[in-house]
Amino acid sequence: MSSCEGKSCSTCERRSKGTKDELLECKLSRIKHKIIVMSGKGGVGKSSVAVYIALALAQKGHRVGLMDIDLHGPSIPKMLGLHGLLRISKDQEILPHEYSPNFKVVSIESMLEDTDSAIIWRGPIKHGVIQQFISDCTWNDLDFLVVDCPPGTGDEALSIARIMPDAKAVIVTTPQEVALADVRKSINFCKKVQLDIAGLVENMSGLYCPHCNEFIPIFRTGGGSKTAERMKIDFLGSLPFDPAVVVGGDQGRPILEDAASDSPFRKAVETLADAVVARFERNGAEEVKESQTVH
Fold this sequence. Notes:
This protein is an alpha/beta fold. It has one domain: Rossmann fold. About 40% of the residues lie in helices and about 20% in strands. It has ten helices and eleven strands. The strands form two sheets. Strands 1, 2, 5, 6, 7, 8, 9, 10 and 11 form a nine-stranded mixed beta sheet that branches. A two-stranded antiparallel ribbon has the order 3-4. Helix 5 runs parallel beside helix 6. It is globular and about 60 Å long. The two termini are about 20 Å apart. The mean pLDDT is about 85. Belongs to the Mrp/NBP35 ATP-binding proteins family. Homodimer. Binds and transfers iron-sulfur (Fe-S) clusters to target apoproteins. Can hydrolyze ATP. It holds the Pfam family ParA.
């Protein structure tokens, strides 16, 4: 953490005297762990996975930020039931939506008067906006920043990888071969830009019958774990298809908010969140060990 820990970044000397790069560095230094949620193609439930990872981490007591950089198809505010424009502080910083006291959210949709407007931006503008989402927002101290990246390996993915080189990617796929073929491209993208991969998540791996609770493989199962093994990355877990997730997303009420729910999806999300935390803790322990070895 930076020396300004516990303070508002608007009072930091770097904000008033430093360069934009110094301010960005200051903001990033206050974020302990950074997660970029990616997918090789659309339609695999990437944004849902980003929302549920962030929400599960927040419910476990972590300070969490969720940043939606899917500039052309933002969906995070709707899925969380967040309405209205983001406010600006007296120090001219963007104030994220507060879903809960320890869970903040920023999305381009929350900056548009007309949410049906099409965003027509080229790469340099996108890079500048993504950088502003960090440097000009009041995130303060976070344990995790989860970034919902648009599908594919375009401008947004390249920008966030450059802005946050110490981030780790969580790559989302579904069991079908067409999705797995595209996710292999995402894995190779991460390797090419030297973005560490936290692991692979297989979404919509099957359906638990609401009547008999029997597991039904809608597509097939096991493709995600086999791909992870073949590409030599961690497999973080599988999430079953649950119609309640779709309903909850449309209504802006994630099913994790239902305390009485004991669904297989809820259990799988909590297991996934634990796997993500363990992955970062393991990496931290390895870094400490390497540092001790060097000294």
